[in-house]
Amino acid sequence: MADILHRIGVEKASPDDVYQALTTIDGLSAWWTRDTTGDTETGGVIAFRFPPGGFDMKVVELVPGKRVKWEVVDGPAEWIGTHVSFDLRQDGDYTIVLFEHRGWADQVEFMYHCSTKWATYLLSLKQLLETGQGAPSPVDLQISDWH
Amino acid sequence: MADILHRIGVEKASPDDVYQALTTIDGLSAWWTRDTTGDTETGGVIAFRFPPGGFDMKVVELVPGKRVKWEVVDGPAEWIGTHVSFDLRQDGDYTIVLFEHRGWADQVEFMYHCSTKWATYLLSLKQLLETGQGAPSPVDLQISDWH
Predict the structure, then answer these.
(1) pLDDT, tens digit (0-9, with 9 covering 90-100), for B33-50
(2) Which of A91, A119, A143 is facing B116, going by the closest CB pair?
(3) What distance in Å separates residue B51's CA from the closest CA in chain A?
(4) Could you identify which of A24, B65, B85, B90 might form a hypothetical disulfide with B69, taking C-beta atoms 3.0 to 4.6 angstroms apart as the criterion?
(5) Main-chain dihedrals φ then ψ at residue B103, nearest 5 degrees
């Protein structure tokens, strides 16, 4: 098993602010992909779509202001059954976000791509909360021929 | 053991161009840190310095236009003995860079930070080759309270 891990600090935003951006359709649409629909409550399924395809995430854990965890229930074969989580805590003027995308079966090249791409989306989340403007798909940063 | 993996594609640059940016003091200074000194030949040690400290990398493998591998011989305890590598290949208009920082003993919070930070430096490498201007330390993108 292999994992993608990231850490960002969002300045002058509270853990509750970040939690809102992770648990509402409006929030998620503003940093990950504008084409986000579904049910963001525990047990619900959120559909994230991008020009080349997308992911369906089942919400498996919600701790307000602290933790969000999803299970991938549909999407590319390598993603199905993996888990994505965000742990939040206040640290001075920052909300620290510890991100995990755990449970990849193999270190395939697509995983290398997703690791870098997650970093850019997390920086989009940071930018959204700090400036009011994220860079969600389809206006996301292109990192390669795989977008 | 845990690994940091990334993939970027550099447009309109050849594998040889990217290799130059990974194997010369001028190249490395223009995307990772301006404070780069040392010997970039096989067996040499390159000293990378940042405001909070730095890393000494021993060059353990060089395959022109294809592969660069370093061993961390000094720096933060978590980094010592880990390996950093860059594999290059042409893919249409892109040079694909597969990056690995392998051999972390534990998934400590510092590893989460380094994973995100490596993504930003690889995007600096891409930007350097595509536009002539990277974002090396100390003008690098700040991602958190840990910089």
Answers:
(1) 999 999 999 999 999 999
(2) A119
(3) 19
(4) B85
(5) 100, 20
Query: With an 8 Å Cβ cutoff, are A112 and B6 in contact?
Result: yes
pLDDT digit string (tens) for B48-73? 999 989 999 999 999 999 999 999 99
B94, A3: Cβ pair inside 8 Å? no
Structural domains counted in chain B: 1
Chain A residues in contact with B119 by the CB 8 A cut-off are 6, 115-116, 119-120
In a domain, A15, yes or no: yes
Exposed, middle or buried by CB within 10 Å (0-12, 13-18, 19+), for A45?
middle
- For residue B63, is it within any domain? yes
A120 vs B119: CB contact, 8 Å cut-off? yes
